[in-house]
Amino acid sequence: MASKSWLCHPAGLMLLLITWRDSMHCYGFTVDPPEDLAVSDPGHLGHLEITWGPPGSLTNMTECSTLYQLEYFNTYRDSWTAIRMNRRTFSAQFDLMKDVRVRVYTLLDGRCTNNTMIQSTSYTELIQKPPSTGVVGTEVQDFMCIFHNMEYMDCKWRRCTKMPANSQQNLYFWHKHLEQAVECPKYILSSGFRSGCNFSGNSLPEFTDINFCVNGSSPEGPLKPTFVSLQIQNHVKPEITEKLHLQSGPDTQLELHWESPAGKVPEHCLEWEVEHSQEAPGGKLPSKQIVPTQVWSLTLPSSHNDERSCFRVRSKVNKYCADKSFWSDWSRPTCHPEKNEVTPEPEWDTLPVYICVAAAIIVILVLSLCVGTGLKVTKSRQEKKLDSLPTTSFAINSVLTAAEG
């Protein structure tokens, strides 16, 4: 009877409810994973839409807030990426030449879980295989893009050896500022075939994923597509350094300084490599060393008197402005001491020989002209004599005929 009156008391009911709720949590209160996981392709060359729905068991759940943990395999980084959110849609970048792997969990937090966040022990997963369309072995090779001095970009590729005859390749690109994929504005041709795309005059955004697709057609069917995603600030190749200055400093030191190449690459974004080579006399191979530096000058001890020091410089974008970069071409070398190339003077002993040869050639030319002129005059006289013979013969014949009469 006492126990029944305790249960009827409001405080006792509340305590029972709390105890029951805690026991549910302590003894494994679980939540189901999301449902209806799907991945759709809006035609953005690898930028896919991921959607899912809440678990059916949470339809009438009002005392807890629901979160979701999305995990997808980033094939460009070869690792899993995880995001927690309260919405049920997300966009991510995938390499469409590889498997698309996505999984999602349900998380609950609030009064129903005693204000402790719990996660579903299982997850909903989707694995989407790449399309198997296209003639096997016809994908492009060595696709590479270079952002030249941050002024224009070229993307180039090589045709595979199994490419069918009369094949035509196309490049398309997309980024978030475009509604749909766009074809290459200006193709680069090699031996009559498309081997790249030039983006001169076409503004591409920095720090933005740009997706590329190279596909094509052939008499044997569609070609295997190639998908690439990149950010152009990670593909900069600075211009060559033109102006280097080398001089001898105090204490037999060599002072080298140079000027940043002209262009749009900020000076503070460049790092440098200086190649120092020493040319020893006697035909020995020069010794070389590479000196990295973040500044525009370098001071080195001078070489021995019988050695010649040469320097050249190249640059690339440093890690503070981009994840990676291409090295520029090497500058023209500057050396100390400089080679003084002396033009050899003609020897005076050979001058009379040159004069005699020239005089002989002139005499031969003059004699040839004279002989040629004489032959022409003789030939002309003979032709005149021959022209006068018929007239004389006609006159003689007329005289004889008259005499006979």
Overview of this protein structure:
By secondary structure, the protein is of the alpha+beta class. The protein contains three helices and 25 strands. The model is unreliable at 1-27 and 388-405 (pLDDT under 50). The N and C termini lie far apart (193 Å). Strands 3, 4, 6, 7 and 8 form a five-stranded antiparallel sheet that branches. A five-stranded mixed sheet has the order 13-14-10-9-18, with no helix packed on it. Strands 11, 12, 15, 16 and 17 form a five-stranded antiparallel sheet that branches.
Give the helix/strand layout.
Layout: H1 2-8, H2 10-26, E1 35-40, E2 47-53, E3 64-74, E4 79-85, E5 89-93, E6 100-110, E7 118-119, E8 124-128, E9 141-148, E10 152-158, E11 168-174, E12 182-183, E13 187-190, E14 193-198, E15 210-218, E16 221-222, E17 226-230, E18 236-237, E19 244-248, E20 253-258, E21 270-279, E22 287-293, E23 297-301, E24 308-317, E25 334-336, H3 351-404
